[in-house]
Amino acid sequence: MAEQAIIRIQNLYKIFGTHPEKAMTMLRDGRSKDEIFRSTKQGVGVADVSFEARRGEIVVVMGLSGSGKSTLVRCINRLIEPTAGSIFIDGQDITTMTAEELRKLRQHKMSMVFQSFALFPHRTVLDNASFGLEIQGVAEEERRKRAHEALELVGLAGWEGSYPAQLSGGMQQRVGLARALAVSPDILLMDEAFSALDPLIRKDMQDELLSLQETMRKTIVFISHDLDEALKLGDRIVLMRDGRIEQCGTGEEILANPATEYVRRFVEDVDVTKAVTAGQVMKRTEAVAYGSDGPRTALRRMQKAGLSSLFVVSRDGLLKGWVTADMTDIALKNGNGRIDEIMQAEVSTVRVETPAADIIPLMAAGQSPLPVVDDRGRLVGVVVRGSLIAGLAERGGNAQ
Ligand SMILES: Nc1ncnc2c1ncn2[C@@H]1O[C@H](COP(=O)(O)OP(=O)(O)OP(=O)(O)O)[C@@H](O)[C@H]1O
């Protein structure tokens, strides 16, 4: 896993003020942000934060106002200078980078999308979208082509000649997203990017980001103060309080096992007993392996579906077990095996009518996807990480 981390943050601190040393000592002694401010007049932005973001995942940094979300994310591109700690991007510590290295990193590796859209009012949509490329010195024709592609991606083809004021808020934020995507960054930093939008538009943008992400597979660090948004978007959630990380984990882990009383109170409004069932949130199984398949066939099917494991079924659809790409690789190297000889037969299942409250602990324990079977044991669908709690969050949001 470790080598997959594209962002690795280690013991990061940011103290605002001219004399951070005293505040650092007090923080290490476990003193609170309030105490430190009262006695030193130094502001604690981020305190001893460590976490990783893996390639292709959405990490949502969540917390109340003043908890340190923006400071943390601005340290990742060094818009804010950290007081102590390390930030590795692709294995390179950016806190020791020269100004030139940093400039390259910001231009090519990561882009930021702001809550306020931050568009230039006197530039057309196309020129706004191509701004990052202009800074990079990309030639005009290439710039226009790539900006146009990015606008197409976010559903704004045809609006290239318009000006920001002629667009709705949602459309303006699409331009902001297109501008960030046009430079083909590996990492997107999104600071409350959807918070200024009307609730319905906001939901559309969340759905669209998720659907874009299915093909883009960027690493996204998304700041939000909204739990529903965090549950819906985050592969993992970093929950902050007073500059520190209170808990970091998948939505399922946080709901099933809140690390502290604070987290428990934070998530208590998400009603896991609500009538959300596996059947309502399951997806059709895109690909399966058959017991009689050889490892090569199963592997090919996995690759085609972009999956790293498959459920194994009999010809009449009964769930028999599961197999991973690693298992098929080993079988191939040993030159033998039918899938039913190499598969793992033990697998937890849920039924169409199984309620969320019973599924979340299974997923929190690391089981994903979970197979859904009918009363005869036939595989009828899968519940994948995130979809269940996204369902809960959306229903919760509507009910309140
Ligand atoms: N430039 C600054 N100078 C002094 N203190 C600052 C500065 N920027 C942030 N802080 C302090 O650092 C702490 C964390 O602020 P930050 O903006 O990162 O929180 P946040 O979780 O993003 O909040 P919000 O959701 O309101 O933006 C706050 O106590 C804030 O007052």
Which structural traits does this protein have?
Rossmann fold, six-stranded mixed sheet, 400 residues, four-stranded antiparallel sheet, binds adenosine-5'-triphosphate, alpha/beta, 18 helices, CBS-domain
List the topology elements.
Elements (H helix, E strand, L loop, with lengths): L4 E12 L3 H9 L4 H8 L2 E12 L3 E6 L5 H8 L7 E6 L2 E2 L5 H11 E5 L10 H5 L1 H6 L3 H14 L15 H14 L4 E5 L7 H18 L2 E6 L2 H7 L2 E6 L2 E6 L1 H6 L4 H7 L10 H4 L6 E3 L4 H11 L3 E5 L5 E6 H10 L4 H4 L7 E2 L4 H9 L5 E4 L5 E5 L3 H13 L1
Adenosine-5'-triphosphate binds next to strand 2 and helix 3.
Description:
One of its GO terms (cellular component) is membrane. Residues 343-400 form the CBS domain. Belongs to the ABC transporter superfamily. With 400 residues, the protein is an alpha/beta fold. The protein has 2 domains: 55-82 and 97-271, P-loop containing nucleotide triphosphate hydrolases (Rossmann fold, 3-Layer(aba) Sandwich), CATH 3.40.50.300; 279-394, CBS-domain (Roll), CATH 3.10.580. 41% of the residues lie in helices and 23% in strands. The protein has helices at 20-28, 33-40, 69-76, 99-109, 125-129, 131-136, 140-153, 169-182, 199-216, 227-233, 251-256, 261-267, 278-281, 295-305, 325-334, 339-342, 356-364, 387-399, and strands at 5-16, 43-54, 58-63, 84-89, 92-93, 110-114, 187-191, 219-224, 236-241, 244-249, 288-290, 309-313, 319-324, 350-351, 370-373, 379-383. The mean pLDDT is 89.
